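New to this. Please check this record:
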Amino acid sequence: MGKVHTAIDDKLAKMILDQRVFFVATAPLASEGNLNLSPKGLDSLRILGPTTVAYLDVIGSGVETIAHLKENRRIVLMFCAFDGQPNIVRLHGRGRVVEPHCEEFPVLAAQFPKYESTRSIIVVEVTRISDSCGWGVPRMKHEGERDQLFSWAKKKGPEGLKAYKQEKNRRSIDGLPGLAE
């Protein structure tokens, strides 16, 4: 059944990178604050080392993950095998937000596809790696990526995306600071 690992080995790396979708969860420190759980797709995840991962964060209607990480850095990523051998992998850790104005951004961004809708890169120093059976996860087939985000971003253009981020991504739903720019 479940096992705790000390590092992301080749077997875990393959399972993680084979998934077409993964989930990210964060929470504010305030007990009355809203928890956040977000699905992530696209070609957006990289394993940077045995205990470090990063994912490309694209513009969304909210900025909860970024706000929570800036407040307390707690994060968990979950990967579920929807085909092949059943398995669930969770990566608990301390995350940080690397925005485009940060010195480190160009080096990290070079490892990902270039998307107009990119707003940051989330880097996670993994402190706990675990897997479990996944027997209750249904089998599902991947039919393809959706293109709405890309067409929306292209239609908005650079100035429209900047305005959207200013309006929608400056503060979380609980009022925590989001994007700096």
Summary: Residues 3-168 form a domain with the Pnp Oxidase; Chain A fold (CATH 2.30.110.10). The beta strands are 3-5, 22-26, 36-40, 45-49, 52-58, 74-80, 88-98, 118-132.
